[in-house]
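Cont'd.
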Amino acid sequence: MAEFKFIGCIEIKELLGQKADNEAQLLELIEDVHPDSIYYHMHSYFLRHVYLSGPFPNDFANWAAIELRDNILGEKLANVGVSPEKSLEDIRMDLVETIDKHLSEMRFVSPVSRGNSFHFMKSQIVEVPLGTAARALPEFIRALQNVHASALYYHIFEARIRVRKGRNDFSIWLDNTLGYKQLAERVERIDFYMFSLERLRRKILDLCLQELAE
Amino acid sequence: MKFSGTLLEAYRDISPPGTVDLIYRLGEKLRGRSMLHVNSTKMGGGVAEMLLRLIPMFRELGIEVRWEVMTGTPLFFKTTKSFHNALQGDEAVLTEEMFEEYRRVNHENATKLDLSGDMAVIHDPQPAALIGYKFKEAKWLWRCHIDISRPQRKAWNFVKPYVSGYDGAIFSLPSFAQRLKIPQYLVYPSIDPLSDKNRELEPEQIDSIRTGFGLTGDKPLILQVSRFDKFKDPLGLIAAYKIVRKHQDCKLVLAGGSASDDPEGEEVLARVREEAEKDEDILVLDLPPDANLAINALQRSADIIVQKSVKEGFGLTVAEGMWKGKPVIGGAVGGILAQIVYGLTGFTVNSIEGCAYRIRSLLNNPDLARKLGEDAKEYTRKNFLITRHLIDYLSLMSLMMGVR
């Protein structure tokens, strides 16, 4: 039976030297920036905030709300959906449309910065096999309790969006290898963008323990 | 073969779960490789302090690390001090003679120092010109520890061609990024949770140090630890404290280093002392540079820690306070913004009034203060401990060496 091998990851953050000071500049740069930068600002929030769920789940939304004091745009950007069906270009288009529509409804766009600039970044992921593996559900639960939190990021967000496997790695293994179809579906149905990595760990562990109890 | 050292093991229960194992795994890929660090001082300053702590960790992982320190003439160091100021945006005079001395001393060091190694990290502007002497196969990174978000053009134009020759540059904050054709990486500085400044202390030890300073613990304690420098705004904090005192009894402690070589700093310290003389609840402590245990105990004794800077490089005193589980209020500048997630791990403020309001609010909401402190500690554990710093360097080395 195929093992589940836990892989952690390290994110090397790269600065692109491009910055936005208002909504219009943000739009302009999102249109042109490298797709990895879209991925970084839509996801890496989770790697940086392992223990905390911030006001919004992506950097664009947080910057608009906190630095521009544009709460409406912040709320709209927080709802730009990310799903396995969407490519990074689809996400870019959603962001562009959201900001463009918002700009058309604004009476005045301040040409100067109202807070700190938005600095565009991108990242490269260095995979680190953690040497931890599981063959059965109880073993999986024990391992998941102790692995580095970046393994959750790697097996959920990287698998679903950057590597585009369609589902998270945990669900694929639980379903295809162990035959826990329902558990796999429950895990995949978690609204991953609403939790910190530590809370995601707890959530998945709870679902697995529930399955064992049943 | 599983590698298990002893130095790194000491961090197993302090760093986030799984971190030490992750470090061993990353280290395994790099065992036998060599790394060179070059800077301009063996003692004193944040860079030397950081290297002294990181280098034994690299060695424990089987990475061969050398640390070379460049030497220079008084004119060279005067020149690099001027570069330092000018790159941070201050006024500084730079002459052709100074540029020539910079090139000459770098050349001289290149002939004296052993610059071999699979990867080199060259720290700050002083040795930047060594890039002209790099071995062809080696990968060299320029590590900039200073704030170059608004450099003086003449200084940057001189340094930029050297920096452009590197395989990459490393900055401490996104706002320090420049228009460069080489990759620019972000690596935050860190604190060492096992150093005297940050390690756990026994309650008796804390009490003994606190009472040694005449602090009886009868009133809530507000603390700022920093040099007496106008950019750290101790006078602004005193003004905020005066507003708080209209509503709430508390004590303010301003603890910092000696400013004897800095006339501007001396003036700030004199004015701070003048204010303190008028109020018996303001205590000014001019501490020696090695007063690490005292700072640790003061931070652990405080109810609220403030870093009311109006200009800041990174401001690691914020992470130090957060690591002690304290609610921290910081000026909304520089690296303080990377450390304090507003309302989650502390509060950033933009004015004296804002600072006063947040102090009052936290003094009156102990549950909120406790929650912010707890989350701040966890946030620091993940983001600002030396183990994360080590991981960043190991990852960059993996990237540079092509061992993914």
